[in-house]
Write a structure and sequence with these properties.
Elements (H helix, E strand, L loop, with lengths): L1 H11 L1 H34 L2 H7 L4 H11 L7 H13 L4 H14 L1 H10 L4 H25 L17 H33 L3 H6 L3 H15 L6 H7 L5 H10 L5 H11 L1 H26 L1
Helix pairs in contact: 1-2, 2-5, 2-9, 4-6, 4-8, 5-6, 5-14, 6-8, 7-8, 7-12, 8-13, 8-15, 9-14, 11-13, 12-13, 13-15, 14-15
């Protein structure tokens, strides 16, 4: 009886129905990739020796940051997967600058995302190439900025639960800890994204599409609000045909790096002091990279 009452209330309130649909879709869309990231993170903790990771990356940030960013191409997941993996890398002694370059690059330059972008923009390989270049450049710049200006007190290293003996016990306990921890922040981010989707009027988009500077900022801001998984955002960008390609590229570059869901996950993993500094700077760098790349290629 109570469930039927809730269903009837949602059906009678279109805005509430839209909010519920967006919230559920964000969580369902992101959860498989979050689980993938948790599994990879736990596997790193349990089965990969810290010395191996340390040897794989150069000590110099000038070299380790680009290598870590390029390594993001091998993780077929979205931003929800990259956060726990980056947290595990930091916990295993990898330089935060390199881990953050990986965190930002992986959701935007992995093969699944690039193929989805090619499908969304048929006959326009330059869009795929522009997304790859702009996203990787932004990730590398953010890694270098952290290496130069980041402070240890801004970063709360990911905490690991006490575990039983043996690698399987470490894997199990780490995966359980990360799934419960990151999953809670995914729900918080989904709630914020759904609320903002309902609050921001769609008519505002049409009003700014013809204004070059404002349209870029508008779509970049929309990417933050919508919090669409990077495997699906290219299809949304393609549908926004009233906007310039520069604006749509900004949407594609910003979304996997800065959105309300991702900010919540970052705050839960690395602390609020980190998130309130890292997210705004990432937004500026991502928009700048998208505009410069579009000027060059599109």
């Amino acid at each position: 009886m109570g469930q039927r009452f809730v269903v009837d209330a949602i059906e009678d309130a279109p805005a509430l129905a839209t909010w519920a649909t967006i919230f559920v879709s964000i969580c369902i869309q992101a959860l498989p990739f979050l689980v993938l990231g948790v599994v990879l993170s736990a596997a790193l903790m349990a089965f990969v020796p810290p010395s191996l990771i340390a040897r794989a990356l150069p000590r110099s940030p000038a070299l380790s940051v680009p290598m870590a960013g390029a390594a993001g191409a091998v993780l077929p997941g979205c931003e929800c997967a990259s956060v726990p993996v980056a947290g595990s890398l930091v916990a295993r002694g990898v330089a935060p600058a390199a881990a953050f370059a990986f965190l930002l690059a992986a959701p935007a330059i992995n093969p699944v995302v690039l193929v989805a972008t090619a499908v969304a923009f048929p006959g326009k390989p330059e869009v795929v190439f522009a997304r790859l270049i702009a996203s990787l450049a932004a990730a590398i710049v953010m890694g270098w900025l952290w290496a130069r200006f980041g402070k240890a007190e801004w970063l709360r290293p990911p905490r690991r639960p006490s575990t039983g003996e043996g690698k399987l016990a470490v894997f199990r306990d780490s995966a359980q800890h990360d799934l419960l921890h990151a999953g809670g922040f995914l729900v918080v981010g989904g709630l914020l994204a759904a609320t903002m989707n309902v609050v921001v009027p769609r008519s505002w988009l049409d009003a700014v599409a013809d204004q070059p500077v404002i349209s870029v900022l508008a779509l970049a801001g929309l990417a933050v609000i919508l919090a669409i998984c990077s495997e699906a955002d290219a299809f949304v960008a393609a549908s926004l045909s009233q906007f310039s390609m520069t604006s749509r590229l900004a949407f594609l570059v910003v979304g996997p790096m800065v959105d309300v869901k991702l900010i919540a996950l970052q705050a839960g993993t690395f602390g609020r002091s980190f998130a309130v500094r890292f997210a705004p700077v990432t937004f500026v760098v991502a928009v700048t990279s998208a505009v410069l790349t579009a000027w060059w290629l599109l």
